[in-house]
Amino acid sequence: MLVKDTELIVSSMFTAVILWMDDSELTQGKNFLVKIGTKLISAAVMDIKYRIDIHTGEHLAATRLYKNEIAVCDIAAAEEIVYDTFQKHKGAGSFILIDRVTNMTSACGVVEHSLRRSENIVWQKLDITREIRAGRMGQKPLTLWFTGLSGSGKSALANELEKRLSVAGRYTMLLDGDNIRMGLNKNLGFEPEDRIENIRRIAEVARLMNDAGLIVLTAFISPFAGDRQNARNIVGETNFVEIYVSTPLEECERRDAKGLYQKAREGRIPNFTGISSPYEAPKNADIVIDTSRQSLEESADLVLQALEKYM
Amino acid sequence: MLVKDTELIVSSMFTAVILWMDDSELTQGKNFLVKIGTKLISAAVMDIKYRIDIHTGEHLAATRLYKNEIAVCDIAAAEEIVYDTFQKHKGAGSFILIDRVTNMTSACGVVEHSLRRSENIVWQKLDITREIRAGRMGQKPLTLWFTGLSGSGKSALANELEKRLSVAGRYTMLLDGDNIRMGLNKNLGFEPEDRIENIRRIAEVARLMNDAGLIVLTAFISPFAGDRQNARNIVGETNFVEIYVSTPLEECERRDAKGLYQKAREGRIPNFTGISSPYEAPKNADIVIDTSRQSLEESADLVLQALEKYM
Questions:
Q1: What confidence tens digit (pLDDT) does each residue in B178-218 have?
Q2: Shared-domain flag, residues A291 and A205
Q3: Which of these, A41, B18, B299, B301, could form a disulfide with B109 (CB 3.0-4.6 Å)?
Q4: Are B166 and A201 a contacting pair at CB < 8 A?
Q5: Among A72, A1, A80, A63, which residue's Cα sits nearest to residue A29?
């Protein structure tokens, strides 16, 4: 069947009936590639309007869709596309949604009607939320909070973990002394109140990065149980994983890569954790790892294994 | 040809010769799906060892690869895979690298030799850098710094922009009063030094988020030119885009959605920008937009168009 060009619709938003075919659920705001006509472009399901009961035809409220469910959704494409309603033209009115990561067809659908700009309530209604950002990255945002003495291997382990997670396709960010003390916290000293504020700001940034969908790794001594509890409260219990790098003081002091322990023993660094200032070891850390018992790689293996249940 | 199982290699890292076929360049750390034998898993090019001159066979130093170049690389997979060297077994020793976003075949390659754990220098050498994180997301990290009077439409415009960018497949984060004043900056008041520190911390967080690969949108009045220049210095010139929402004071006051202008006029809010405290309008903003002249959607269209050259 030939269709006159003038009958086609040019718009970047439309309402559609979709059949959701993916094992994972559909959440609002999720981003896809949409294949419609000959075009393949970015699009997002901005709003699930209602689900249709396939037995009764009833309209049911829904904010997410599970496999084999049918629903009416508003879809926004990244640019204007030419299409038609399915009723008028089967070819130009049907589409598929392709998962950007797995490249599998997640849904097929037919266009019900276009959403003109003037009736564009979809965009107004839906903000880009934490859930949408995490959904885009296909991961659960987590803050992996490494704590342990200077020289315990926190940074090396966090670094190694970040590489492993990155190779596995995760989106990550590492916060450590290098990028925090010289930047965000450069106006803080080492007095008790500064140390509390130091940890508080790091936790706030970790939370913001979780909001952005990222898996955050932090590598700071964070010696005080109260500060770590505060960090857990800020980040939120379900996203916070405390990893205690429990390498014994003797081993840390033996390594003394930066010569800090020696200086501390000579009294040249006041308030040095483990020497002249206490380290309050976590009593209920989510993961405990002693890096003196195996190689960095083996330690990373163990932590990665223990992390699985949080991912 | 049949191969005895005992001859195959089980490892997660190997050195390979690859032919790069993608229009975009290959950078170290880039993440792919590798198809080797019957397996399809996550992997990253951890190190480009050298490029091979196809005419002379010479080994050339290279940190990135362009289309049709041949190079020797170290590749790390997310889990152990069974394979063989190409020399011994053509089928089990060849692979392709598939782009995670476009799902196109970016490279084909043959395994030279396995990298045993003990000789694993690859991981140690390469940290996950800003470039790698941005490469993973397939975008240039940017900080879109919106500035303008209260009620000028900064937040609405930043919100709208974030939706558009998200639908277009970008990874974004919006920093605004809601998530900053209640969190990171809750210990700051509205005195001049607090205002400076407020903007400084936001810029530092934006920089960290750029390090994570994200496109960051910030929506704060940021009335002082000096603070904005400081933010630009922190974020870095090449990643900073200042967007001046130039809606005139009369229009902002007319809207007065939160009733703030009225309170300020009554003297109930001291130091209110535009009434009892100055707004230093940007003289050289990268993008200027007056939201009183067109709808939110049209404004967003204009900004998005102007943004193209920065992306």
A1: 899 889 999 998 888 898 999 999 999 999 999 999 999 99
A2: yes
A3: B18
A4: no
A5: A63
